[in-house]
Amino acid sequence: MPVSRWILVGMIVGCTPALAAQGLGPNGATAKCEDGAYSHNKIVGLACRDHNGLVVWYGVAPNEAVAAQKRADVYAVLEEQMSQERPNIVARADLAGTIQDRFTPDSADVVQYPSFMVYLDHVRQLSGCRKMSNRCALCPGAHQIYCTNVAAFLPLMAF
After folding, report:
1. Total domain count for the chain?
2. Same structural domain for residues 52 and 92?
């Protein structure tokens, strides 16, 4: 293994305190090691690395696993951002989840169109948008995500 790989491995190993997790094993352990020690590392490949290997992988507690997945989920991140926005906003975001702009739809449009999908189709002229979450739709032709917190649109968003 070249020296540069050892440096990279050393950097990863040196950063592992941030990888501690609440596991499903005894005292919150994620794994049991060959030498009888318990690990709290949330990455299987790094658990028990200094303890002669892995015997049992207990896994990560579901609430932490769900939280980690949500942090990585663009739609969950956008949903959270929309819940913090002032009311009656539509936001346009890129596929990475970065909000590009925000606008307030005309009240006549909100009344006229029965759902957010119909609104996007007619007003924004974005066809083929699909609901991806409770507040967000992916519009593939435009390569954009549109999210809303307009109360009249939320219960009517259909797949």
Report:
1. 2
2. no
Closest alpha carbon to 126 in 139, 116, 114: 139
Q: Is 87 exposed, middle or buried (0-12, 13-18, 19+ CB in 10 A)?
A: exposed
Whether the predicted model's global pTM rises above the 0.85 cut: no
Above 60 in pLDDT, residue 71?
no
Residue 91's beta-bridge partner residues? 102, 147
**Contact between residue 54 and residue 44 where contact means Cβ atoms under 8 Å apart:** yes
Neighbour count for residue 97 (Cβ, 10 Å) = 16
How far is Cα 78 from Cα 148, in angstroms, rounded to an integer?
A: 10
Largest Cα–Cα separation, the chain: 69
Query: Are residues 137 and 123 in contact, defined by beta-carbon separation less than 8 angstroms?
Result: no
Rounded Cα distance, 47 and 51, in Å:
9
